[in-house]
Amino acid sequence: xxxxxxxxxxxxxxxxxxxxxxxxxxxxxxxxxxxxxxxxxxxxxxxxxxxxxxxxxxxxxxxxxxxxxxxxxxxxxxxxxxxxxxxxxxxxxxxxxxxxxxxxxxxxxxxxxxxxxxxxxxxxxxxxxxxxxxxxxxxxxx
Length: 142
Hints:
142 residues, alpha+beta, 2 domains, 9-stranded mixed beta sheet, 2 helices
């Protein structure tokens, strides 16, 4: 059970649970802009865009995650992130993200390809968000 100054956070995807624990603050890329969630936050339900979820744990550490979209449900003592895909930032494959970005950019140039423009734009957004999370993690480590 969480303490009054913390909020329970669960981050899950189709692959399974990525994180579960108490936090003092959660930041997420909501569809209408980034949000910050503290304990006793008003209930909220929002779609998520590809980006970084940052969790400040009760022991003072920060955990970084990439989500490829999904939804976030906020209750006063519980945050649930239901992600299309979710990875710990340290587990992101930079080479694969760069390759996906390049494929999406090429698909946008090639109008006769099998991939639609919307699919290419979505893939480009996911890859760019992954690379942004990697860059932020590197900056924090240095």
